[in-house]
Design a protein that fits this description.
heterodimer; A: five-stranded mixed β-sheet; 5 helices; B: 361 residues; mainly beta; Neuraminidase; 3 domains; four-stranded antiparallel β-sheet; globular
């Protein structure tokens, strides 16, 4: 046996611990709103398809918007999402924002039908916290010619964010806010051949959450690009979740909020596996807070764009 | 005849106590104990985001991590009658407690915010913490090397010629004070990876490549030592996805679970010839076991439509507890043996997690 193989491998100075084995915060509620809904919208195109989760099979599914559109739905029990329907949008459906009606349940603004999803497009990311910031960021995202906006908020009621999302003219995925009844531990939003993979490690599920994240990651591994988004960059993410996202089946980019942009990997508040995956931090309130990522056949490119401050609340 | 049937039924009924975690009065996780004899649930943890309970091998008390009043995280000791003791920690965050085989010491990971982690061992009789691992940092998830595993390690290390320097220190200390197996961060291509380490009070040595399945940067996690036998189970992404490996310092390492779906969280069964683990090979998380001689894998509780996880065996080896979401929220189930029907323990409510069957005191 070679001596060097037995010698203590020098723990690099960068080595540090992010060692929560049992991520916990609170679980005042258990149920999560089924996908899609106003803050986790589905994006599709005429002639395209989308997944609709429900608590019951066989319900009629209708898009209510510019005109009501009945969807052809194939219901099945999914290993990933439980009961879900694969719904086909008619080729003559008008582009726009739709409410989704599943049986008796109406999910306002849950579906965006776009004219097309080009091979090359932009998604904007921002950590804005307040609902007013969402409207401001959406305006900046539209100006940046983004197809959609990912908004990382603060812990607060979901209702104001839902109201703010109604004012936007592009799909907005919101995470990190609400009474947590809005949020499953993890959910995936498909945009054409790409995936936004959201997970909130503070929505503890007593050990069940990592299994859900693994199933989602496995189900989305064929995506052209996958960006993981977390509303928390701290020890609560847990080593198990890091192994899923950054080691076993690495995503292409990880986006999370930080207090400041780190100058080196050692500057990260919780160094760990992140350096193995491209990490794009977002600093709430920073002048260049809007992160715009270009999805195309070329490697993911990103730019940071200034966002005007939201109006002060009187 | 009837008496015999009743007697057999009573034998089939699980006995003893199971510790677990469920939401407490404030909504945060709280460690509780369910007693099969009385059917009652007794909260024993402070309910401050209590972590997974771990029984001392002598069954006398539990150790688990929990939030502290100062905003950190510490290890709490709790007896079944509700007596609580918080270990006085030097560092702010202290997690992943692991009992020594003689129930006299607890190993855990400790760190201050923004600092590198330490491996710490707490001596119950002396009420004192000591940093283990010498200068090594980034160590986590300890498991005690005990019984034949420790003997095998010491014997193999002597054959390796570990007599000088850090290796010699580790060998001498392991023989005298015992040793830990832990996961530690190591430099890897593009950032950090994890690897297995053997740790004593003043030394930490990465497990030599010669006893691993292959050479390369893989991410090891969750070492599980058998309390008596000489093998160590762990998980690694060696081979492309997460698999369960079994290591012997004498005979090397083999892939026990080998499947394209992820396999994780190894747990030794009471029969040392079998290792339980969780696998996604049905599409959902299920419980499986593998024979460490034949490498045959068979399901314990698995389904294509719901998850089963968190297995914990009864001290008599027949029955086991686990968590399943077959009825929606994660609930506690008990099975008298492989192939038997699971029995839901409604008294504990749901959601629950992290069951730990109490060893016979």
């Amino acid at each position: 046996m070679a001596a060097e193989a037995m010698s203590v491998r020098a723990f690099a100075k960068t080595t540090a611990l992010m060692l929560i084995s049992f991520a916990t915060i609170s679980f005042t509620t258990w149920a999560a709103s089924p996908f899609p809904h106003a803050l986790q919208p589905a994006v599709t195109v005429p002639g395209g398809s989308m997944t609709v989760q429900s608590i019951q099979q066989g319900l009629p599914v209708v898009l209510a918007g510019p005109a009501d559109v009945a969807l052809q739905a194939s219901w099945a029990e999914s290993a990933v999402n439980g009961i879900e329907a694969r719904c086909v949008v008619p080729t003559d459906a008008a582009p726009g924002r739709y409410d989704l009606i599943v049986g008796e349940e109406r999910r306002e603004g849950a579906v965006w039908v776009l004219e097309s999803i080009p091979a090359s497009y932009r998604i904007a990311f921002v950590s804005g916290h307040e609902p007013a910031g969402l409207v401001q960021a959406a305006t900046a995202a539209v100006e940046a010619e983004a197809l959609g906006l990912v908004f990382i908020g603060a812990d607060a009621d979901a209702a104001p964010y839902r109201a703010a999302a109604r004012e936007t003219t592009l799909p907005v995925w919101v995470t990190g806010v609400g009474d947590r009844s809005e949020w499953p531990f993890a959910f995936a939003a498909a945009i054409g051949q790409d995936t936004l993979l959201f997970h909130d490690p503070r929505v503890t599920k007593l050990g069940a959450g990592s299994g859900e994240l693994h199933r989602l990651r496995r189900a989305t591994r064929a995506s052209r690009w996958t960006i993981a988004v977390s509303p928390h960059y701290d020890p609560y993410i847990g080593i198990r979740n890091q192994l899923i996202l950054f080691a076993d089946d690495p995503v292409d980019m990880f986006v999370a909020p930080l207090d400041r942009i780190p100058e080196t990997p050692e500057d990260l508040p919780v160094p760990g596996f992140w350096p193995r995956v491209r990490f794009e931090p977002i600093v709430a309130g920073a002048a260049d807070a809007l992160l715009v990522v270009q999805f195309s056949s070329a490697p993911l490119r990103s730019a940071r764009i200034s966002v005007p401050s939201p109006p002060e609340t009187p | 005849m009837l008496a015999t049937a009743l007697l057999l039924m009573s034998f089939a009924q699980p006995t003893g106590q199971i510790a677990f975690v469920r939401p407490g009065p404030e909504g945060a996780a709280q460690v509780c104990i369910y007693d099969f004899g009385t059917g009652e649930v007794t909260p024993v943890g402070p309910g401050m985001d209590d972590g997974a309970p771990v029984w001392a091998p002598d069954g006398s008390q539990l150790a688990f991590e929990s939030d502290t009043e100062s905003g950190g995280r510490g290890v709490v000791l709790a007896t079944p009658d509700g007596t609580l003791k918080r270990i006085r920690h030097y560092y702010e965050r202290n997690v992943s407690p692991a009992w020594s085989n003689d129930s006299a010491r607890i190993a855990f990971s400790a760190m201050d915010p923004g600092e590198k982690s330490y491996m710490v061992v707490y001596d119950l009789a002396a009420d004192r913490e000591a940093v283990w691992g010498g200068d090594a940092r980034g160590l986590m998830q300890p498991a005690w090397l005990a019984g034949r595993a420790l003997e095998t390690f010491v014997g193999a290390a002597e054959d390796y010629g570990w007599r000088e320097g850090v290796a010699g220190t580790l060998l001498r200390e392991a023989s005298r004070q015992g040793a830990l197996v832990a996961t530690g961060f190591v430099p890897a291509e593009g950032g950090l990876g994890t690897s297995l380490f053997v740790v004593s009070q003043n030394a930490a040595i990465e497990v030599p490549t010669i006893v691993l399945a292959s050479q390369g940067d893989y991410d090891e996690w969750k070492p599980a030592t058998h309390p008596r036998e000489g093998r160590i189970a762990f998980e690694s992404n060696d081979g492309g996805d997460r698999e369960i490996f079994v290591l012997s310092f004498r005979t090397g390492t083999f892939d026990l679970s080998n499947h394209r779906a992820a396999d994780w969280n190894p747990v030794w069964t009471p029969d040392p010839g079998w290792l339980a683990f969780e696998s996604f090979r049905t599409g959902r998380r299920g419980l499986f076991r593998g024979n460490v001689e034949s490498v045959r894998v068979e399901p314990i509780v698995a389904s294509e439509s719901y998850d089963n996880w968190g297995i914990s065996y009864a001290p008599n080896g027949g029955a086991f507890a686990f968590i399943s979401n077959r009825d929606g929220e994660p609930a506690l189930y008990v099975q008298s043996g492989y192939g038997d029907s699971p029995q839901r323990i409604d008294a504990v409510g749901s959601p629950v997690g992290e069951p730990a069957w109490r060893p016979r005191p």
